[in-house]
């Protein structure tokens, strides 16, 4: 734990990419393979599922420090990070450093993971014992692991780069080896960094290639990408990005979040059984009846997402299709480096006689960008979010590599709403009011409508924070109700009815588009105006 704690502190102390890479490279060169495997697990963004409710950690901290629980809660509200709060408050408790000498993999496998099956009394005894066996920095890292909030400003791509510098293996190869069912153990790490190891898991997906958004500044147009003839244009579907794998007589379906979705979409798995062996398809899972000309709203797909074994009734009410974008592997050969037009031609041949539950995403052909712009404006009527633009001649890359794939989404919905409530954010924003609740006019009332956390500049956040503190009406724990005077333009991607919300509607991906200083509350939109958007989504 001593070595891993030092790595965390070193990473947390810098924003320089080169220094972060060097810190991780040095760690991998020194750490035992079993420890390095768990470090890869955490640095890649994978987390231990929360083992203990955070409320218990706060209660135990209060008991260990002889502080009233309300004071611990208030301190947590001010600090904004539970791991840091507990670590700092426990600094007054007598501790030693014996726990630092235990290897990281012993901490995880022997101490932390068994807590999942333990009763509350056993958990409390164990955790308070952990706290007393570590100094401040070690407690902080341990609490990060316990709360599942291990973030240290390192992307998966950056971690892979450090592994590449340590091992001499190409980052793309390492990225592929880390996909799927990679396990954090000593043998897996040795194989990960072994240049001569070519063993393959038949279920292993490829790293996903992600598109960058087309962000048009004033005066710019999408035509700045060059002639439309240089691009493959496809519809951008709103579903679950996934890879469908057919290898060694078996089918595997992986989400972009590297979750194996076995049994969740049996229609797709059954259809894939007729595909040729040695095939990997990249595409989107959509709620889409086979005889319909467009998908159902995303809310119907949501009904299927967490059902491990969907009933026949649910399958009938929300049937699914796999809409294929790309072909990554054919006859067991990786073809990602081939030009996209060649992969597309092969894909059309593969899917020519496929089951309707596995479809081919249609390409869109127009003479120029202007007619494409016109078609994009009607995207929602077709159940899409706009277009995907893929440069002809491009390979299938890893991650969000800019330049070859772009998502040209339809303009979001926008409405003007009134700021009603605010509370502190987390991390570096824990001392600022940055989490906002907005309302819409409904007669003489303002009805809470949506929460948004992003969209303002740092300068606007500071200015608004000062205003909110001066115009607070009431406080409910960390939440403040404020004078209803500030109007903001909110943007969101979708809207649907919701019985769980007081407004009767829910929106997808709300964010602040701009601060409407030119508008008064009387100028804000009404709930009825927003509800008029609902039929288009249905």
Automatic annotation (TrEMBL):
CDD domains: Adenylation_DNA_ligase_Bac1, OBF_DNA_ligase_Arch_LigB. InterPro entries: ATP-dep_DNA_ligase, ATP_dep_DNA_lig_pp_1105_fam, DNA_ligase_ATP-dep_C, DNA_ligase_ATP-dep_cent, DNA_ligase_ATP-dep_CS, DNA_ligase_ATP-dep_N, DNA_ligase_N_sf, NA-bd_OB-fold. Keywords: ATP-binding, Cell cycle, Cell division, DNA damage, DNA recombination, DNA repair, DNA replication, Ligase, Magnesium, Metal-binding, Nucleotide-binding. This is DNA ligase (ATP). PROSITE patterns: DNA_LIGASE_A1, DNA_LIGASE_A3. It comes from Spectribacter acetivorans. Residues 313-442 form the ATP-dependent DNA ligase family profile domain. It catalyses: ATP + (deoxyribonucleotide)n-3'-hydroxyl + 5'-phospho-(deoxyribonucleotide)m = (deoxyribonucleotide)n+m + AMP + diphosphate. GO terms for molecular function: DNA ligase (ATP) activity. Its EC number is 6.5.1.1. It is an enzyme of class 6 (ligase). The lineage of its organism: Bacteria, Pseudomonadati, Pseudomonadota, Gammaproteobacteria, Salinisphaerales. It holds the Pfam family DNA_ligase_A_M.
């Amino acid at each position: 734990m001593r070595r891993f704690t030092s790595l965390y502190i070193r990473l947390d102390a810098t924003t320089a990419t080169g220094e972060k890479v060097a810190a991780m490279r040095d760690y991998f060169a020194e750490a035992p393979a079993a420890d390095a495997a768990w470090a890869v697990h955490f640095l890649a963004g994978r987390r231990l599922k929360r083992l203990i409710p955070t409320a218990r950690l706060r209660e135990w901290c209060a008991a260990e420090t002889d502080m009233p629980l309300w004071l611990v809660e208030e301190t947590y509200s001010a600090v904004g990070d539970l791991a840091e709060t507990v670590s700092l408050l426990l600094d007054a408790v007598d501790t030693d450093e014996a726990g630092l000498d235990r290897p990281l993999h012993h901490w995880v496998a022997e101490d932390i993971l068994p807590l999942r099956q333990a009763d509350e009394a056993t958990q409390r005894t164990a955790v308070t014992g952990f706290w007393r066996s570590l100094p401040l920095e070690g407690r902080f890292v341990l609490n990060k692991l316990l709360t599942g909030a291990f973030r240290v400003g390192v992307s998966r791509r950056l971690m892979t780069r450090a592994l590449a510098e340590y091992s001499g293996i190409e980052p793309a190869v390492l990225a592929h080896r880390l996909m799927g069912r990679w396990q954090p153990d000593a043998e897996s790490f040795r194989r990960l960094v072994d240049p001569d190891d070519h063993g393959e898991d038949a279920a292993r997906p490829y790293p996903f290639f992600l598109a960058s958004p087309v962000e048009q500044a004033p005066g710019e147009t999408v035509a700045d990408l060059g002639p439309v003839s240089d691009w493959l244009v496809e519809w951008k579907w709103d579903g679950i990005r996934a890879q469908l794998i057919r290898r060694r007589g078996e089918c595997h379906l992986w989400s972009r979040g590297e979750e194996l979705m076995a049994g969740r979409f049996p229609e797709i798995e059954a259809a894939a059984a007729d595909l040729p062996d040695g095939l990997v398809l990249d595409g989107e899972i959509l709620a889409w009846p086979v005889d319909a000309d467009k998908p159902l709203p995303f809310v119907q797909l949501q009904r299927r997402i967490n059902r491990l074994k969907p009933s026949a009734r649910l399958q009938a009410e929300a049937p699914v299709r796999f809409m294929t974008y790309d072909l990554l592997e054919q006859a067991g050969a990786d073809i990602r480096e081939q030009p996209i037009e060649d992969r597309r031609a092969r894909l059309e041949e593969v899917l020519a006689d496929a089951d309707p539950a596995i479809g081919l995403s249609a390409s869109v052909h127009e003479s120029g960008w202007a007619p494409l712009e016109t078609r994009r404006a009607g995207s929602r009527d077709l159940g899409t979010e706009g277009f995907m633009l893929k440069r002809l001649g491009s390979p299938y890359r890893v991650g969000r590599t800019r330049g070859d794939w772009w998502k040209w989404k339809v303009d979001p919905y926008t409405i003007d709403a009134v700021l009603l409530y605010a509370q502190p954010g987390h991390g570096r924003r824990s001392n600022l009011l940055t989490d906002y609740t907005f309302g819409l006019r409904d007669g003489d009332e303002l009805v809470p409508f949506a929460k948004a956390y992003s969209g303002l500049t740092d300068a606007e956040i500071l200015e608004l924070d000062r205003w909110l503190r001066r115009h607070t009406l009431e406080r409910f724990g960390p939440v403040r109700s404020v004078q209803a005077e500030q109007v903001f333009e909110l943007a969101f991607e979708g809207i649907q009815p919701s019985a769980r919300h007081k407004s009767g509607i829910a929106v997808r991906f709300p964010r602040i588009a701009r601060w409407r200083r030119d508008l008064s509350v009387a100028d804000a939109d009404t709930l009825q105006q927003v509800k008029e958007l609902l039929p288009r989504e249905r």
